[in-house]
Amino acid sequence: MRTLTLRGGARAEVVAAEWHDAFGVVTRGRVQLELRDGEPGPVFGRDAGFWLRGTGVRALCNPDRRTAEVRVFTPGAVTRQATHSVRQAPYEGDDMNSMKDTGIVAGPASGPPRYTHRFRGLAGTGLIATLAAMVITTLAAALARAAGVDFEIPEGGETIPLSGFAVVTGFFSIVGVVIAVALLRWSARPADRFVWTAVALTVISLVPPLISGANAATVTALLGLHLVAAAVVIPVLTRSLRTRTD
């Protein structure tokens, strides 16, 4: 057994002669597999395990800034444990040419892969936040209407129904959840990237009410409802992303 330490952004080449039949378990941070064709492979978090035999993996990479560690178990080898510095050199040759691309078997020591649970957990949290935002914005719109806001849009002379607030809030909240899941999969800093993206999209969403030509009360109410929905969904998804990348 050996412990491989990967500093932030580091890359460790996989040598077939030393890593044949090896099984790795991430004990700290996150580790991404680099496949034989140079394409990025899956990212594994703490306690996730993966086999190297038959996967076509040519390197282990740390996609984050924080240090990551991997325990590498090699059946049949003399038990030993060492900490290796990662060689920061360009890849030369393919150390895994003799291996077949049969896919990667990954997951915790028992049970389904942890990264799948992370995505499902984030999606579930996002769905709950979406439903909460829909209810809160609809109630807020109802209170505003009771206070005398007509929500009438001059173009077409139509009045926005209460169900319209729920539908629009739900649609854009789901878009936010999809963005969060994508960033969790492909970004090294998903929480930070999500905050900047969500805030930018929220600012953009304020433009239509401002140019709608509606009366001041309607415009103010619409702006407030946009901010209420953002205040419900963005913190929940951000906190969930931080929890799943620690």
From TrEMBL:
<keyword id="KW-0472">Membrane</keyword>
<dbReference type="InterPro" id="IPR045713">
    <property type="entry name" value="DUF6069"/>
</dbReference>
<feature type="transmembrane region" description="Helical">
    <location>
        <begin position="193"/>
        <end position="211"/>
    </location>
</feature>
<protein>
    <submittedName>
        <fullName>Uncharacterized protein</fullName>
    </submittedName>
</protein>
<feature type="transmembrane region" description="Helical">
    <location>
        <begin position="164"/>
        <end position="186"/>
    </location>
</feature>
<keyword id="KW-1133">Transmembrane helix</keyword>
<dbReference type="Pfam" id="PF19545">
    <property type="entry name" value="DUF6069"/>
</dbReference>
<feature type="transmembrane region" description="Helical">
    <location>
        <begin position="217"/>
        <end position="237"/>
    </location>
</feature>
<feature type="transmembrane region" description="Helical">
    <location>
        <begin position="122"/>
        <end position="144"/>
    </location>
</feature>
<keyword id="KW-0812">Transmembrane</keyword>
